[in-house]
Design brief:
The protein is mostly helical. The chain has 9 helices and no strands. The N terminus is likely disordered.
Length: about 210
């Protein structure tokens, strides 16, 4: 699976993508004020309503505002590296990013469907119970049993594109993504096999 990340992630879901709250509270953002930026910059990759149709670009609809704001700030500072996204956010102000975070957090996420049911069943076991003997905890312990996340710290995974989720897990495993709190996701992903990641990603896509 390949990834061409465009705007925010995150993912992806990217993760299983644990992060602390952003420095500036995105809850103060104005969704209405973000509309022109969404239409001119974000919509091409993530759709106006944040429900990207491209498996390489994460769905942003329904993600926690603080999480989105942090990802945007991390792209701008270089803490989260991506050539496309760093260019996209270069001219955004702190208020612009808060507005975008507020906008996408209020959009209604559209559910996805697992493409490989057998793989998804394996992923369900990992998501709910972790990987016994490998030290991989249940994804649900941080992202919730329905993958809706825990506001601020752990993003929504439910319905996220499997390609994107897999790519982010692999990036954490390789260390090419390193903006997770206390190396939490890097530590977890390092203990996962490629098959584990693909299974979890397949399950997450159809999770509702």
């Amino acid at each position: 699976m390949k990834l061409v990340v465009s705007l925010v992630a995150a993912l992806a879901a990217t993760s299983a993508f644990a992060n602390p709250p952003a420095a500036g509270p995105a809850s103060k953002g104005d969704p209405k004020a973000a509309e022109s930026i969404v239409n001119q910059v974000c919509a091409a990759c993530h759709a106006v309503d944040g429900n990207s149709t491209s498996a390489a670009n994460p769905k942003l609809a329904g993600l926690n505002a603080e999480y989105i704001n942090k990802q945007l700030n991390d792209f701008k500072s270089g803490e989260r590296k991506n050539a496309i996204m760093s260019g996209m956010v270069a001219s955004l102000s702190a208020q612009d990013m808060q507005n975008l975070a507020a906008y996408f957090s209020t959009q209604q996420p559209k559910p996805g469907t697992a493409k490989d049911q057998q793989l998804a069943l394996l992923g369900q076991k990992i998501f709910r119970g972790g990987v016994q003997g490998a030290g991989v905890p249940a994804c649900a312990s941080c992202h919730g049993p329905q993958g809706k996340g825990i506001p601020v710290q752990f993003p929504r995974l439910s319905g996220q594109h499997s390609d994107y989720v897999y790519a982010q897990l692999n990036a954490f495993r390789l260390g090419t993504r390193a903006n997770d709190a206390a190396k939490m996701m890097r530590s977890i992903a390092a203990k996962m096999t490629d098959a584990d990641m693909m299974a979890v990603a397949a399950y997450v896509q159809g999770l509702r």
